[in-house]
Amino acid sequence: MRWIWIDKFIDFERGRRAVSLKNVTLAEEHLHDHFPGFPVMPECLMIEAMAQTAGILVGEAKKFQEKVILAKIKKAVFFDYVKPGDTIELEANIESIASEAASTSGKITRSGKLIAEIDLMFSHIDQNLAGKEFPAENFVFGTGQSVFETLLRDILTREKPNTEAQL
Amino acid sequence: MAMSRDEIFTQVQEVLVDALGVDDDEITSEATLMGDLGAESIDFLDIVFRLEKAFGIKIPREELFPAESLMNNSDYVHNGKLTEKGLQELREKMPHTDLTSFEDDPDINKLGDLFTVNAIVNYVEGKINAA
Hints:
heterodimer; A: 167 residues; alpha+beta; Thiol Ester Dehydrase, Chain A; six-stranded antiparallel beta sheet; 21% helix; globular; B: 131 residues; mainly alpha; Non-ribosomal Peptide Synthetase Peptidyl Carrier Protein, Chain A; 2 domains; two-stranded antiparallel ribbon; 7 helices; 2 strands; 53% helix
């Protein structure tokens, strides 16, 4: 079972831009320890949410044929706490994409207020790490892509007439 | 777009400060990207992307940093050193870099030292002037 840390996409423009939502709830156990009496979403998990948003955008740009892994956090700046009950919106933009890698810029907002700026770099690992071999199957984007369909449900319904959108 | 060498250097310096998280005074012309500035392989791609944006140019990765493809070819590498054929290839692929001291001892572990700040400035200068 793949660990998915965002709830759904609300906008998706192939190869360009994606916007996802993440609802934060006190049912997430780590919030009770981070911190006792003062639950705030760990910043590393905001980076994870952005990595998933941007990573799926980058993966989809190459039709999920590449194994896309997070290679570098270029920038991560945080401006406010995220607390249980908050819905955060994660917007990722592809800045550059080449056969070996992609770089993205991203913003996290809550009701329009800027929470974080996170810029990332992804590697298409089969095109990199010269000569190293990885399993032939795509362990990043597996054969069952239903989880991506779930995440993209709003987009797919909106674009139903367009068969291109079927991932 | 006409730019002086100093302007190019300043711009390259800015790119490297952002990409590698180093201070601008560490970025001298002779500084090596891997040895002195701590660049890793993914940083090279980051630098390529940033240079493309900063200067509005297109950079095929193997053109600026061609050593990686050489190192995996047995025609070019023998006993940890570049063969004459490998050196020939390197000279062709890195016309902007001074290879004289490397040629005396073409140890592939020293290939990283060839990527200096100066080599990037030379490359960008050539690219902009050609455009």
